[in-house]
Amino acid sequence: MKNLTFITSGLIAGLLFASTGVMAGPQGDNHKYQPQKHSVTKPVPHKVSREHAKDIRGVNVANFEKMIEAGIQRGKLTRTEAITANKGLQSLKSAIWAAKRDHRISRQEEKKVQWQAAQLTRQINFLLNNRVVVAKHGKPSKHGHR
């Protein structure tokens, strides 16, 4: 009996909590409601310094995307291997974003991103050149026949 009371009270509390968000919406004429534009703007630097415009040398995300797509098209990457390679690519993209977040790329950040790019290159090359290939029926095969 206590369990039923506890579960029922939890459900009622959850329902009340969910309904308060619906009731807090705009009231009255909804067709006249227009969302507010953002009032906070970032200051644009008048002069872009070399450090600000600097890109990370040797890192080209588009090349990694092409390598992965080519591996999928040729049947050299299985679905699992493609997912693994794409996760590594997403990690590299987030590292690049974090490095560029403050509009300055320090030497340490640049070296870290270059190291991650090198690791991703090694990983993709390993996955492309291992003996697991996609067979004609779509399942991975460990035979070296392509």
Low-confidence spans:
44-54
Beta-strand level of the residues, as a percent range?
Answer: under 5%
What integer is the average pLDDT?
76
Biggest pleated sheet: 2 strands, antiparallel
Spatial strand order of the main sheet: 1-2
* Structural class estimated from helices and strands: mainly alpha
Shape: flat
Fraction of helical residues: 55-70%
Provide keyphrases for this structure.
146 residues; mainly alpha; 58% helix; flat
Could you describe the 3D structure shown?
The chain is an all-alpha fold and 146 residues long. The protein has 5 helices and 2 strands, in the order H-H-H-H-H-E-E. Strands 1-2 form a two-stranded antiparallel ribbon. The longest helix has 23 residues, at 107-129.
